[in-house]
Amino acid sequence: MSDTTPDAELVLAGEEIGDVPRGLLGDAWYDLRRSVVFWISAVLLFFVALMVLVPGLLADIELTSSLTGGCQLSDSLQAPSAEHWFGTDRQGCDVYALTIHGARPSVMVGVLGAVITTAIGAVVGLVAGFYGGWIDGVLSRIVDIFYGLPLLLGGIVMLSALSLPGIWGVVAVLAVLGWVPAARLVRSTTIEGRSQEYTLAARALGAGNGRLMFRHILPNAIGPGLVLAVISLGAFVAVEATFSFLGLGIRPPGFSWGTMISDAQSVFFQAPWTLLFPAGFLSLTVLAFILLGDAARDSLDPRRQQGA
Amino acid sequence: MGSPLLEVKDLRVSFATREGRVEAVNGLSFAVAPGRTMALLGESGSGKSVAAQAIMGVLDTPPARITAGSIRFEGQELVGLPEKQYRSLRGEKLAMIFQDALSALNPVLSVGTQIAEMFRVHRDLGRKQARAAALEAMAEVRIPAAAARFDDFPHQFSGGMRQRIIIAMMIALSPKVLIADEPTTALDVTVQAQIMELLARLQRELGTSLILISHDLGVVADVADDVTVMYAGRAMEQGTVADVYRRSANPYTRGLLESVPSLQAPGGRLPVIPGRPPSPSSTPTGCAFHPRCALAQQRCSDSAPALVAVAPEHLSRCWFAEEVLSGD
Amino acid sequence: MGRFIVRRLLQFIPVFLGTTFLIYFLVFALPGDPIAGLTAGKPANPAFEAYITEQYHLDDPFLVQYLKYLGGLLTGDLGQTFSGQSVAEVFAERFPVTLQLAATAFLIEVVLGIGLGVWAARRRGGIVDNLSLAGTLIVISIPVFVLAYVVQYIFGVKLGWLPPTGIAKGWPVSYILPAFVLAALSLAYVLRLTRQSLLETFSLDFMRTARAKGLPGGRILWRHGLRNSLIPVVTFLGADLAALMGGAVVIEGIFNIPGVGQQLYASIRLGEAVVVVGLVTALVIIYLIMNLVVDVLYGYLDPRIRYE
Ligand SMILES: Nc1ncnc2c1ncn2[C@@H]1O[C@H](COP(=O)(O)OP(=O)(O)OP(=O)(O)O)[C@@H](O)[C@H]1O
Ligand SMILES: [Mg+2]
Fold it and tell me: What is the ipTM of this complex?
């Protein structure tokens, strides 16, 4: 050991550090595959993916619109039957077809929201945590301010003043107001990682800021960040539904699970299927993401891996 | 040794883990006479803390379980004692000081409250009287300006002061047996000496028996009357400090003694015991120490030696105890 | 403690300014025509446009606009409704109802959430533990407005145990159903958080000290264990006030509770954006103030924060 050069040691250390997250993710994957919760969520998510990617295979898009003659007012509010598995809504549209085709906007909001908020949060958190000092001070105050404006209330204001087409209004709300938890998480793991001994060692051996950030510090945040992203994905799907329910999200002729539930409220007592099917699909989708996040968290938890 | 105050016999403690049950304490016996100090000496993981917690009855059950053996205090069996009776002994007759004083104190309660609690719970004192009694205990362990610091919180004290607070709390009711689990490992050297002095003084004044857990052979030589050397959850050697340090009859004890700088001729490389202590999930067959022992023979891996007397009140667990003893 | 409170008050000022600025910014400085947004595409009405321009000082430079708006806020001017009523008056009239609803919900989530959480943690793996884990998962997955309809239908309409809408029967009878639905999601989080936090606390060293001191089980749990475990729960409760405010919009709308939320719900649907912005601003201010109270409580629970 005494005759290894500092360079060789750096390489060695680098390899070992590179292995830490990879090893952790590898272990996590091993744990995940043995988790029942993970498989339940995987099966649910498989069906969600089908509905989002190839809804046409499952139901005819024409059945969702009166313009194409798919809906007949004479069929209004029919109970589930062999012809209409989930019944029909007030306009006489097939609830099954609407539910299948309503998945895409809801899930898209979740996916886009999760990607955007995680990216913004990661940048803000990384910069604040890594540089510290006044940069951290300023960024943290900004985070506090955004934290002071709750997502739902802030979104109501934004969407009342702003009219963006389709899902983009809700995505904009999430981008502006939804990144705070991710920023806080990444900031705290960065601060933790910055003071870890291997980071200090790498710094002492002359590793640059960029290398430190991306090779030594960011990998630590990947696990918890992934968990947060998956769980917020589920939550954002519900947020889309809530805004659409309030009439602030997707507007006609577009539709999503949220607008379907909103339309169904006035006829809920006489035709509960109009509400229960989209609501059920929505809930199962949210559940699937939460379960996936839970399973990932458990398998990423180093304390669990030691078999305490 | 007089009649023992506390007697541990063939104690076995096991933990439920992912790999099944593992034995952390594996047939430990020792006795402590009134007013004497017994040191439990051994490498990390040898089961010292687990044994101490078993005596106090504060093991987390599950995963821990006392699977066999007996712990007698003043003739009363503690293993299986109903919680209510056990509780009235803790703090009152049996007390314990922990390794890490910061984490052993509740961060959200003032130190005074935590000490006074002893009097409120065990002595039914009112708030005022308990406070007065706690202040007395704080003065006893030499905490400066006790009255002013009564309402301060643990994070506002230095490491040494925190340990004094725990000591004040634990000697508050003059227990008969005090277990100190590595009370000074987390402290720097000068403070270590002060704390050991404090413990020794309190022990003299109160006539308490002390069970001192340590891996510092120097501290043990200074403070203890008797020593139990532990390895893999068992006693390897037992006797007075003089017997064990000067006339050791066990290769493990000898290895430990030889690895201490001050006891060694200056200059040469310090001999260390090769290898690592076994983990409880993979204890070797036969004598647990044999893979690391220079004297090991076939016999040592085949069957486990018993703890036998090599002299009056001097016991060793080794097939070659007599040879080691006379090898001086 | 006094210094701690003063410090928190001082920190509150920039957050207050920042958050109100953010609201104003989101409404008036985003790309697009704020007047078109605020009138929600209704046919242009010159009188109303003039009113908006005047109320929000749209002819001034942006920063001046904000300062005038802030001056209005501080003197209790939140703008006017279409019919000329002061928004501040509407708020003052309706807020007591919302407060009653939110307080009831808060009580439910604190008492049941912490109570069941403690029970689940003490009997880990027992019936209560497993039931509450499954139950909370379901509640977390179902969007609140779906839960509202289901609960309203089952307990209000089918079983007829409690009034399904309105507050004619007064507190508590009329408030029980909506408060439960409003509390449900947060209750689930409080329960899980309390349970997990308590389990973590159980494994800490000072809990062993408490046992070694010979303290009775009740004292160990409530005095030594719970107080430490409540720290993350209180953090959550502070943030959760926002969820209650936002949830009130949906719940009051569905259960027809004449509070601020119901007015918001109606105004959103009518496109009365001035009212929406005014009411949301008022709710956010209330939220910020309550958060301040929670912060102080936090300092009481955790001395390490207080002396920081
Ligand atoms: N909760 C637990 N679950 C499983 N095994 C445990 C647990 N607690 C302790 N052990 C095992 O029991 C053995 C003895 O531990 P113990 O803490 O008594 O060692 P020690 O002699 O006090 O060491 P140290 O000097 O490091 O304090 C260890 O090998 C440990 O692996
Ligand atoms: Mg120990």
Answer: 0.84
